[in-house]
Every structure is written in C-alpha cells, then in structure tokens.
Amino acid sequence: MPAGRPSKYKEEFCETVVECGRAGMGKLETCAELDICYETFENWQKQHEQFSEAVKRAQQLSQAWWERKGREGAIGEISNFNATTYIFNMKNRFAADWRDKQVSEHVGKDDGELVFKWQK
C-alpha cells in the first residue's frame, strides 16, 4: 500500500486546464479552478503526460487570448485600453515571445576563445 494520501488527479482535469487557457487564465488561476496548490499542478505535469500536454495547449491558448485582447485594444475595440500595462503584462507573462532583451555573445575565431591583442 503506497504511503500518503491518494491523488485527487482525474483525467477530466485536462479539459478544465485547456478551457482555463482558452479564457486567458494563467497557471495559478488554473490551480484555483482545480482547487489544488501550485506544487501539485507541477507534480501532475511530471506524472501525467496527458496533463502536461493539456498545460502546454492551455499556455498557447492563453497567449492567443491575450494577444487578441491587445489587437482589439490597438484598434479601439476596448475602451480605456492601457497599452503600457498591456505590454508590461505580455513581457512578463510571455517572456519567450515578448521580451526585449537581446543576448550578444563575443567569441573568437571558429567559436573559440576570445583573444585580445594590443599593438603599439
């Protein structure tokens, strides 16, 4: 008999996760909908492939929801749209696609060590 409490996980949670993403929700809002803590949410992604795939899909749907809101706001369909707040939200919520940070790397010839030479 395994130690600990039985898992509350149910396969139908995958559908809930996807629907939360479709509504623009983030991971913590989704945890609230499932009535679980974030640690459980993370563990279920490791333990249940189907749940992990649902989370990935939900993140895509959430980003699409937020991007749609930005488009609607930019063309005046949302009254009192605050572009600065929107951009700040997007850069932090979806950093992989929205951040301004650029990484520059200096390497030597053939990707080797960078060597500095000073000549007089």
What report would you give on this structure?
This protein has 120 residues and is an all-alpha fold. It has one domain. It is 57% helix and 0% strand. The chain is built from six helices and no strands. The chain has helices spanning 13-22, 27-34, 38-47, 49-74, 83-93, 95-98. α1 crosses α2 (27-34), α1 runs parallel beside α4 and α4 packs antiparallel against α5 (83-93). The mean pLDDT is 92.
SSE topology:
Blueprint lengths: L12 H10 L4 H8 L3 H10 L1 H26 L8 H11 L1 H4 L22
Helix pairs in contact: 1-2, 1-4, 3-4, 4-5
Quick rundown:
With 120 residues, the chain is mainly α. It is built from 6 helices and no strands.
What's the quaternary structure here?
single chain
The chain-level mean pLDDT equals 92
Query: SS-based structural class?
Result: mainly alpha
Bulk shape: flat
Unreliable stretches (pLDDT < 50, length at least 5) are none
Residue share in β-strands: under 5%
Helical percentage: 55-70%
Radius of gyration: 22 Å
H-E string:
HHHHHH
Number of domains as seen in the coordinates: 1
Largest sheet: none
Task: Specify the number of helices.
Answer: 6
- In whole angstroms, the N-to-C terminal distance is 78 Å
- Strand tally is 0
